[in-house]
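Record type: monomer structure entry
Structure origin: computed from sequence
Chain ID: A
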Amino acid sequence: MSWRRDGLLLAAGGLAGLVLAAILEEDDRKETEEERDGLEILADFVREQAQWAMDESVTEEEREQVYARIKEMVAKYQADLGDLGEEIIAEMREKAAGAPGKEEMKEELGRMVREFKVRTDRF
């Protein structure tokens, strides 16, 4: 009877170990995914596409075409990022132009406080 119990305990321990290993592995995957930034993800995408093309290439001429395509893709992404950066800067400048400065806000707050004091003094 004890061999059955020992077998069940061994199976339960093995199952618990597998579950724990799966949980730890999932945590490791999440940490590495969270640590990667967008540029690394983009580089991995280009790398995967290039590797696929290289696997399909047979001649040196085809490989040279892959290298040229990689340069084109990276140059396009650089141009797109530059354009996006300019758009973001324009948005920030527009928001900053419409937002009151610190001095204006300080003056407005002071005016509101003085007005509040006048109103409360009446009561």
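Annotation 1: The chain has four helices and no strands.
Annotation 2: The mean pLDDT is 80.
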